[in-house]
User: What shape does this take?
Amino acid sequence: MSKKKQGGSSDYTAGQIQVLKGLEAVRKRPGMYIGSTSARGLHHLVYEVVDNAIDEAMAGFCELVVVTIHEGDSVTVEDDGRGIPVDIHPTEKVPGVELAMTTLHAGGKFDKNTYKVSGGLHGVGVSVVNALSESLEVEVRREGELYHQRFERGLKTKDLEKRGRAKGSGTKVTFKPDPQIFTELVYNFDVLSNRLRELAFLNKGLRIVIVDERAEKPLREEYQYEGGLAEYVTYLRGTRGPLHDKVCYFEASKPEAEIELALQYDQGFAENTHTFVNNINTHEGGTHLTGFKAALTRTINDYARRNNLFKKEDGLSGDDVREGLTCVLSVRVMEPQFEGQTKTKLGNSEVRGAVEAAVNEHLSTFLDENPRAAKNIIEKSLQAARAREAARKARDLARKKSALEGGVLPGKLADCSISDPTLCELYLVEGDSAGGSAKQGRDRSYQAILPLKGKILNVERARIDKVLSNDEIRAIITAVGAGIRDDFELGNTRYHKIIIMTDADVDGAHIRTLLLTFFFRQMPELIEAGMVYIAQPPLYRVQKGRQELYAYSDDERDEYIKRLGSKDGEAKGVNIQRYKGLGEMNPDQLWKTTMDPDTRTILQVQIEDAAIASNLFDRLMGDEVEPRREFIEKNARYVRNLDV
Assistant: This one.
């Protein structure tokens, strides 16, 4: 049976579109509106148009959204909502659809009666897409008629026209990003499908389809989740075994917010909590997350004391009760206040109390109705508490010797002389041999070197006490200087560039993955701040006489061989050295190829999607072997060089 509200188009008219002015600035400063003119901004165009359809779904008028990527990277977004109004606006004297497409800050989202909640808070969406598109066409189906209008670079090329009769209602927008604006014009199917999957989870029952016509055999994915957030939690948990079979799920309606939450504990040690406001991923949390954390800790402690699971004077900390937790919290707020330009931290103080009250009530009920699950959760939390206490005692016992507590830097750290963190770099180097070369080759004023012995602990499979008892990890924590987990303070970071430098072989790749796992699980703020990098040492040295060139790929090596060879391209007299380890380079070579800011290449580590990243680390570094085997089999064909 259809859940879509019937009718409704007659009370959604052009008069409800409020105007706040201007579109010229968008083409001059596109980054202000979509973040960048690279791949991220390109994909943001699609999200802006999709958000309009999602708002219709949240209002109860839309059941299907179809996104199609065409040859040439134009995109169509079609929905079966009410259709953008086509009647004449009472003050602007143009059709509502034209107004929405050509005027910044024109939209139904400023009228509380049209959309009670909306993800596209600023209402800039579709007009910005129009301004930054080489061409845009919109079709509207309303009240039995089909309407069409075309625009180029934000300007209409013809008036809105009727194109005959049409069944149902909805909006179809087709746009082609402007090559005058964007440095990247190719859409990534996986990036778009990940966001659309997320939206389908967040909007229970909504059907979202994505089609890619560019491939020889068109790709098609369809997402629809009647279980909503409960299914999302199962998806996010991935391969980690559940601690209790039933997902704790509830919906609550409060005057301050509509609240939806799902959570489940697993056998792992990482916390995996995601929060959303009006479908916007609030990466930095905010008042809704604060309310959830406070209620979770209080409710579990209260249940344990009521049921004599520990003494009344005992208690579990927030860290203890969140170990192994996978949770999604989604709130819908009529007037959300986001902190900063990024819209990723909720500031509404009233939402904290609403979430806290809802979680207290519904989580208490879940624990009472599922005593076995409650017992398992509390036992796991107690184990986490014991591990945390053991780690604290170990630190206290070794306070004088401990770099973590005493502030004494690790003995093997070759620090830099400059004290300004914004200018300083820390190289995490695989092995003493490479560490020695790096120490000799570096610029001592701003480059610090920390050699790492062997492979660090896999934190994906270890509790905090084991993590903190690992010498290499302790050295990294101390050198960085900002703490870990809830004690992490980004402002205390001693270096604003932390560069992972490992060998270009299988062991080096493994060490790099272990380090990335550590940073992602224990210091994610470093990655979010853009402070973690991966060095790119050369694979080959190609030399003839006094000429030497460094190649970073097989293709580059072959090109250099031809360049240094004779006219007919033969490699006479050309010596090729394959670097299997950093230690094979002398200090000058290491500086010139990998450490000199004027000539080096370093890759910044970024998290496009925290949920996808968490899932990947779980697959690659978790206890389950089968998902790792599947990943290797699927991606083995992309490996060109493999030194075992």
Q: What stands out?
A: The first strand starts at residue 18 and ends at 19. The radius of gyration is 28 Å.
